[in-house]
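User: Here's a protein and a ligand (zinc ion). What would the complex look like?
Assistant: Let me lay out the input and then the predicted complex.
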Amino acid sequence: MSTTQQRQSPHAFTVDLEAWFHAHNLNIAPHKWDQLPLRLDQPVQQLLSLLDKYHTQATFFVLGYIAKRHPTLVTTIHQAGHEIACHGMKHQRVDELSESQFRDDVACAKNTLESLIGEPVIGYRAPAYTIGSQTHWALDVLYELGLRYDSSIYPVRSPHGHYGIPGAPLSPTMLESGLYEFPLPVWQLRNHRLPAATGGYLRLWPMIITRQTFSQYEKANRPVVVNVHPWELDPDQPRQQVPFMRRLSHYTNLSKTVTRLDQLLANHHFSSLRDLYQQYGKEGRSFAVGAPSFAYWQRVGEGCAVP
Ligand SMILES: [Zn+2]
């Protein structure tokens, strides 16, 4: 690793710990979940081996459903030194919940995880990244529930409108409540932003887009938050008949995920989001003056000069 890379703040490696049948693209009704195999042991073991190979600690955003159905998997991840964070209880999109339903869902998941691992859970990621312009109230609820950082916001306009705040900052930001936001990464071309380097986009886009995204973020000394789902390491998962675009998004390049993650881990330094949160807090790397509120983010809009 070069000296330049060693001076860089680490990037964040995150996993959304859920089963293949939780993916919204597959649209599998919750009443069927208990009858379906989780298929998590093998891909999680692959992820743990990969992280161990590069001495990297990651953040696992765990769905409460998984903690209840397969608690030993969660304790195994925790005992391997990784951060356990919260992904809600039942993988419901935030934009489909009322404020009180959201509060109950997150509180239940957080309590479930904390009882299991015996330590506080401080991080949250919304199912399908669905904290956006219409659901920013959720961030205040998270802080009230004791969460200290969130990593749900895509600073883009999403094609279907479920997620994204187009003008949101690309760098980690402390909100007025005190909650830190670690946004998902984008590839920038002039004033345009495309989601990149994480989730399905790590599989869908050619690796040159991922490499350019890392290069853009490293030049600005901001972390790329990589995210992956265990089912993205499982090319043999049961195939569902879903519309073409959903099929494309869910099944493309599943067999390439491990190699791509290995390349990223070999070439960049990663840590958990808890470590980044502690580091940013210590260095006071927040927007202490003129803290961007959601009103600000919405005012600057798409194509703004990003912080
Ligand atoms: Zn999820």
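Summary: The longest helix spans residues 99-117.
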